[in-house]
Design brief:
alpha/beta; Rossmann fold; eight-stranded mixed β-sheet; 335 residues
Length: 335
């Protein structure tokens, strides 16, 4: 071999060694990616029970859109009002306002999938029951179940997102909207790249372990949702903890989180064509008050009520003021 040939062969050998080292590193990373998540234990939770064991005296259960829902129904006649709770909550969040609202007509409140005492499927053959399109379909199925052509949708936070999305897709089925601290601009769920990564089986397996922290951190989050956390009684804390005793609550909450991203509802709110009331607390630390004010300005002919000294949960922290605003709005709908 000549000197020139030896000089040419030297870089080639270095490149081969570099490529071989890179391939080894990639293989090691892939093994870590696949194997390590399976080495982390995900112990089963003890003491979990069937939803029916936690039901209240006035609780009801029904099969709707292929799922077993927990719901409560009060009042009679028209209008037909549907209460839609937010993320991490349940129909329990309407406890102080459901009975008063039922004096105006029929009021339905149900636990959305992944929350409260409603079924928590972990496998399905059709559309994902936790995704927003499926939840819109479930809401319409509820109206069909009761033979209701048009309903007033009252949605809190992420429930407001569901209410507004339903009004955009089925305007003929919605008489009016009451959007309470609605999570329209705040987004929701995981960032898209995290959601894609989390779909891989090794990481999907760890999901329930990640969301179990809600048992502790969730209480701190609840306190941050109130302007005056001192109003949160032990009974309220227990009401929020109750769903964490249901079988598969952690796995279902993870499925819900994976199924829901930021969405594009904000781009469509100017197309809402039904009477709308936006209610917000003046000290909302979860969905900033400014976002609700902005939303009310973008929905054609929407009205706005800002409740003073109130956080993210007006129907719980200031139920009297909430009812005053909602009742006045609903009364104006009557010819």
């Amino acid at each position: 071999m000549t000197d020139n040939q030896a000089e040419t062969a030297q870089p080639k050998k270095k490149r081969k060694r570099w490529v071989r080292g890179l391939l080894i590193a990639v293989v090691i990373l892939l093994l870590l990616f696949v194997v390590v998540p399976y080495l982390i234990p995900v112990p089963p939770l003890a003491g979990l029970v069937a939803a029916e064991q936690l039901a209240d005296a006035d609780s009801q259960f029904a099969e709707v859109a292929g799922l077993r829902f927990h719901y409560k129904l009060k009042g009679a006649g028209e209008p037909f009002i549907v209460l839609l709770h937010g993320f991490g909550a349940s129909l329990y969040s309407w406890r102080d306002v459901m009975e008063p609202l039922s004096r105006l007509g029929t009021v339905l409140a149900y636990d959305r999938p992944a929350f409260g005492l409603t079924a928590r499927p972990l496998a399905w053959t059709r559309e994902n029951p936790y995704a927003l399109p499926a939840q819109v379909g479930q809401l319409i199925a509820w109206l069909d179940r009761f033979g209701v052509q048009k309903a007033i949708l009252v949605g809190h936070s992420a429930g407001g997102t569901l209410a507004a999305e339903t009004a955009l897709r089925y305007p003929e089925r919605v008489q009016a909207l009451v959007l309470v601290d609605p999570a329209v601009y705040a987004g929701g769920g995981l960032p898209e790249f995290v959601r894609i990564l989390a779909q891989f089986p090794p990481f999907r397996r760890l999901g329930p372990l990640l969301v179990r922290s809600i048992g502790e951190a969730g209480i701190d989050f609840l306190k941050s949702a109130w302007h005056n956390p001192a109003k949160i009684t032990p009974e309220i804390l227990e009401g929020y903890r109750k769903p964490l005793k249901v079988v598969d609550w952690d796995a279902a909450l993870w499925e819900f989180t994976l199924a829901n991203g930021s969405g594009d509802l904000a781009a469509g709110v100017t197309q809402l064509a039904v009477p709308t009331l936006v209610i917000t607390g003046d000290d909302d630390q979860i969905v900033p008050t400014e976002q609700s004010i902005r939303l009310s300005s973008q929905i054609p002919e929407a009205s706005l009520v800002v409740i003073p000294e109130c956080g993210h949960l007006p129907q719980e922290e200031e139920p009297v003021e909430f009812l005053k605003a909602a009742s006045s709005f609903l009364a104006a709908l009557t010819p």
